[in-house]
Amino acid sequence: MHPKNLPSDRKDLATKRPREKDFIKLNYDKIIKAINEAKFYPRKARMLRIEGVVKVKFLLKKDGDIEILSIITNKRFLKKAVKKIIQDASGDFPKPQKDIEITVPIEFRLRS
Fold this sequence. Notes:
Elements: H1 18-38, H2 43-47, E1 52-60, E2 66-72, H3 76-89, E3 100-108
Antiparallel strand pairs: 1-2, 1-3
Helix pairs in contact: 1-3
């Protein structure tokens, strides 16, 4: 599939090395599921009705450890939560054969 035809949250797959791309392609849904199961809405963000999508880039190491590389948001109450969510979810991430960078969006939406 051509990179411009990929869903927006998977466009970065096209620029990865083949092995990394295959790992992400095969395990993306498992990673997102683990993140969604660990996701929580920070109380302060909920009270202030803060919503948005936070992009997080992390290094998933072959031993299963993670290292947060960047969190893209201007909403500080969500930034702190994303660090905890990724840390908590990482125990359920599949382990790669070698260290791999992964970028995922985490959406925070309040119900009306």
